[in-house]
Design brief:
By secondary structure, the protein is an alpha+beta fold. It is built from two helices and nine strands; from the N terminus they run E-H-E-E-H-E-E-E-E-E-E. Strands 1, 7, 8 and 9 form a four-stranded antiparallel sheet that branches. Helix 1 packs across helix 2. The longest helix has 19 residues.
């Protein structure tokens, strides 16, 4: 299954990719921004940074049972991403997991600047 995202800035692109990942994982009517979690990832290039970012989101869901509602993403030119995730703990009575993702892959991955914005494509193994 794949995620395609477009945005005006690189930070917004990574946010859109995260929202796409969330849509694959869970059918959530509403996720309350009650708590926050900070995550940091880095990559050797933009593609590796995207894989590491999405992989970290999967890890946060699996290890902390935390569902992000919104993201405050800061990126550096050194290919580091720091994000504060606002959300809540997984509540089985309100949140239904749709799929389990085994891994975020490098298969046909793209992160590219197009015109005045950015575009990304990434696939996950279910």
């Amino acid at each position: 299954m794949g995620i395609a995202a477009e945005a005006e800035s690189l930070g917004a692109l990574f946010q859109q990719a995260a929202l796409g990942l969330r849509e694959i994982l869970i059918d959530a009517q509403e996720i309350r921004p009650d708590e926050s979690v900070v995550v940091e990832v880095r990559g050797a290039d933009l593609e590796e940074l995207l894989v590491n970012w999405l992989g970290e989101l999967i890890f946060v869901l699996e290890s902390r049972q935390f569902l992000p509602a919104t993201f405050d993403i800061q990126m550096t030119p050194e290919l580091q991403l720091r994000a504060r995730l606002w959300g809540e703990r997984l509540d089985p009575s309100r949140h239904q997991l749709q799929r389990e993702i085994k891994a975020v892959t490098y298969h046909q991955i793209k992160v590219e600047q197009v015109g005045g914005g950015w575009r990304a494509q990434v696939y996950v193994d279910l």
